[in-house]
Design goal:
Blueprint: H1 6-19, H2 22-36, E1 40-41, H3 43-50, H4 54-67, E2 70-73, E3 76-79, H5 84-94, H6 96-111, E4 114-121, E5 124-131, E6 146-148, H7 154-159, H8 164-176, H9 210-223, E7 226-229, E8 236-244, E9 251-260, H10 266-272, H11 274-290, H12 306-314, H13 320-326, H14 341-348, H15 352-364, E10 368-370, E11 376-378, H16 387-390, H17 395-410, E12 414-419, E13 425-432, E14 447-449, H18 454-460, H19 469-477, E15 480-483, E16 490-498, E17 504-513, H20 519-544
Antiparallel strand pairs: 1-3, 2-3, 4-5, 4-9, 5-6, 7-8, 8-9, 10-11, 12-13, 12-17, 13-14, 15-16, 16-17
Amino acid sequence: MPAKSATALDADARVEAGEAVGPLLRGVGVLRRLTEAGGTLSPSALERVTGLARSTVDRITATLSRMGYVRLDGRDVVLTPGVMELGNAYLAALRLPALLDARADALADELDESVSLAVADLDGIRFIHQATRRRAMSVSFRIGDLLPAERTAPGPLFATEWTGPDWTRWRARRAADPTDATFPAVPARQTPTGDPTLSDPALSSPALSDSAFAERVERARREGFAVDDQLIEPGLVAVSVPVRDPGTGRLACVASVVSHTSRHSAAGLRTSLLPRLRTAVTAMESDLRTAPPPEPGPPPSGLATWTTASKHQLGRDFVESLARGLTVPAAFGEGRSALSLTEVARATGLARATARRALLTHEHLGLVRALPDRTFALTPRVLDLGFPPLSRTTLPRLAEPHLRALTDRLHEPTALAVLTADGTEIQYTAGAGTSRVLTVRITVGARLPAAATSLGRVLLADTTSPLPPPLAEVRAQGYALVDEELEAGLRSIAVPVRDRSGRAVAALNVATHAARRTPDACVREVLPALRTTADRIQRDLHTASRFTHVPSC
């Protein structure tokens, strides 16, 4: 295991003294195992990988489900976008994605290459922004992924600021984990003697030795940039430049351009991409220098007060100390990057002693660090809790479980659709069918005339005014009802699904046969459930898209 800092050792001492919240330790462990597994595990698999009793796993997952962090899908426990609230709190407090992501995205468009922003996480690097090009051969790293410093381009740059204890921790981690098994985002490397069970002999290269990394660090210190020449895996190359904090001169983050050897050699990165990367970094540093102070809204309060009612309702199946502890990260955010114990207690509504134990437990887990001024701050490790597998989601994936639930409730088929680029058609992107003999079956990808469908009319009504009277009415009432216009006997009702800006990016509908529901019944019985489902999809979309791009199809 990596060597621990003095702060972490102090936290261990306090934990050993009995101040850790055991259920919080176990609940975070469940979230981490789900994250490592890609977001889905069965309860029996969780029992196996965590070492917890099945009854404990069931209580933890029931509590996480109540919080909206997981859903129970058949025999599986599945991470939901709600858990991204934890990572969003860290990214908002950090501010770097909000200040710099537009520059990174513009550089990716200019170069037609993937661009990332990363911060240091102990002796690793963790991504906080990804602008990935959509190609058949593309980079699959996600926001929140953790990589070993020595196998990356940003790593040597961060290591230029390492102290003696940092190097000691790095060497201890290398000795304890010679194949990088604790970094699931990268392929395992070989030990110096090789391992015939591994498929890439290149990953036992001398370039991955301790001395080679030390040399790369010194080169990065001299040259002000660093290159990864296929250290993650054969074919992958990257060049990185530090983005410095204008106040301290220290590294705020590192910007990287990532490509593959069919497009650029490692040497070619220096001449073809490095100059433009440096220009973009200069602009980023200017943005940091001129950014106004954050203007946070009213501080949160009572974040954990709901847990008591849930405990009364669910009894022993609800682990209140876990739920309370997981509300602590939400106390942080933009303008609230460092909080005192009193401020955390006030934001959560917890007693000071309860808030203190939660903070000490999070510190022990590496999710929070104590600062010299007796305040606390979130660490990049918060992104370990569900963020990576959900940061590449799409709107159809977000919507699918909600569509199934609506279909189960109404016993009618449901669908999600988007408007095509020319605005003349809708394209179905997700749906849930029923077992009725007479039902609507439209496959994902199918297109229909927008003007003749309820889905299309809801989306067309969100276009620029002035609208023709029928669409103006749809906009005013917030839904569209189409009665046997597309096909005899087919009746459907639709509502919009809006993004964080309020723009309708998709529409949701329920279809039925005219013999089953009158138009009035559609408005009276179906519309409220339809709107509730749209609200749930929007809530997931707004959470997931705060710091990531969520494609509509």
